[in-house]
Amino acid sequence: MKDKKLLSLLVTVALIVFVAFVRLRDSSANKTPDKPKKTSTTRSSHNKKKSSHHSDYTPQATTASRTIVTSSSDDCNTHIKNTSDNNHLLLGNPSDAQPCRMLVNNYLIDRTYYVASYNSERGTPNWVSWHLDASDLGSTYRTDDFRADPELPGSFYHVEGSDYVSSGFDRGHNCPSGDRTNNTDANESTFLMSNMIPQAPKNNKRTWAGFEEYTRNTLVSAGNECYIIMGSYGTGGTGSKGRVKTIDEGKVTVPSRVWKVVVVIPAGDNDLERLSSGDVKVVAIDTPNNNNTIDNSWRKYITSVKAIEDSTGYHLLTNLPKRVQMALKAKVYVP
Questions:
Q1: Phi, psi angles (nearest 5°) of residue 222
Q2: Is 47 exposed, middle or buried (0-12, 13-18, 19+ CB in 10 A)?
Q3: What is the pLDDT, as a whole number, of residue 13?
Q4: What gap in Å lies between CA 82 and CA 124, rounded to an integer?
Q5: pLDDT mean over 276-300
Q6: Domain positions in the chain
Q7: How many helices, marked H, and strands, marked E, lie in the chain?
Q8: What's the N-to-C CA distance of the chain in angstroms?
Q9: What letter does residue 62 receive in the DSSP assignment?
Q10: Contacts of 227 (CB under 8 A, 6+ apart)
Q11: Which listed residue, 187, 192, 212, 331, has the most CB atoms within 10 A of its CB?
Q12: Which residues make Cβ contacts (< 8 Å) with residue 96, sequence separation at least 6?
């Protein structure tokens, strides 16, 4: 009797297992596959640029014989005094910029043909510094290759070449295209958007262009070499469409003032030694970024290096002896 009951129980369990297996098989065969997940196409509110611009690429900051410093994501205390001839930072580092990604508002970039302090929050350089002599000038055509700077850290906002379109402002070069016509690479480097500011069209095409041409066609062509620093400051400028504080949906700040300092010595060697002698010309201008009031003549805006320092908070010409610094900063040279 017990054997019959056990046999009946085993048969019942086997039947239950078989039925469950059949139902599970049928359910799996008729199940609709899951829909693939959608790939997000929403752009980040901060970095809206292509993924190729967001790599954690660490550029090697070299300028042939003009080595500045290798970029680093960790070392925010790299201080190197650059004293070699033709070095873009021979006159000093105005804001003590460092190649450290944590310094989002004062990040040192070396683009071979110029060096800059980049401000990611403003979307523009604070200042750009470069050396200019006859060897930088040639017959290379203007490339007009405005583009985002792919070597900026991925966490920075990457301004695109089209982001100034219809803003009422020009893509104003700091280191100008005309100062880098010796070869195509040099000229193309000046069209990186990390070298641009929103500049009032009349300032860019008339006042500023006039000063750039004077530097090349009068100073350099006369047998001189120049150490140049250009920058901008303040918030809010007036373009062809009126006054605004920012463009590109608030991501690029429009400066209120644009300035430049040109230090001039005869072409030669041992530049720092000769600069330290004090027998130097310094031409400095500080212009309004205002399309309505800007004068065509850059000479209307001649000022002193000291006045620019007071307005910006930067320290210029710091590699020179103190007595020479003081004398040059106070000088107002009128060509």
A1: -85, 5
A2: middle
A3: 53
A4: 24
A5: 95
A6: 67-330
A7: 7, 13
A8: 125
A9: -
A10: 90, 91, 129, 131, 132, 262, 263, 271, 275
A11: 192
A12: 79, 106
Residue 44: band (very low, low, confident or very high) from pLDDT cuts 50, 70, 90: very low
Percentages helix, strand, coil for the chain (3-state, rounded to 5) are 30, 20, 50
Long-range contacts of range 2-9, CB-CB < 8 Å, 24 or more positions apart?
A: none
Report which secondary-structure segment, H or E, holds 312. Answer: helix 305-312
For the record, the structure tokens of 196 come out as 């641009």
* Adjacent-strand bridge partners of 229: 129, 261
Predicted structure pTM score? 0.79
206-248 confidence digits (pLDDT tens): 999 999 999 999 999 999 999 999 999 999 999 999 999 999 9
Residue with tokens 């048969």: 11
The pLDDT value given to residue 148: 98
What residue type is 118 in one-letter code? Y
Q: Which pLDDT band holds residue 23 (cuts at 50, 70, 90)?
A: low
Helix, strand, or coil here: 135? helix
In this structure, which topology does domain 67-330 adopt according to CATH?
A: Extracellular Endonuclease; Chain A (3.40.570)
Bridge-based pairing of strands 170-173 and 196-199 is antiparallel
Residue 32 vs residue 23, higher pLDDT: 23
Report, as residue numbers or ranges, the catalytic residues: 173
Helices marked H in 51-166 — which ranges? Answer: none
What's the rounded Cα separation, in Å, for the pair 8 and 291?
Answer: 100
Q: Determine what percent of the chain is predicted with pLDDT higher than 70.
A: 77
Task: State pLDDT tens for residues 59-116.
Answer: 333 333 344 444 545 567 777 677 899 999 999 999 999 999 999 999 999 999 999 9
Average pLDDT for residues 287-296, to the nearest whole number? Answer: 98
**Secondary structure (DSSP) of 147-215:** B--TTS-TTS----TTTTTTTT-EEEESS-GGG--SSHHHHHHTTBGGGEEEE-HHIIIIIIHHHHHHI
> Which residues, at least 6 apart from 11, have a Cβ–Cβ distance to it below 8 Å?
none
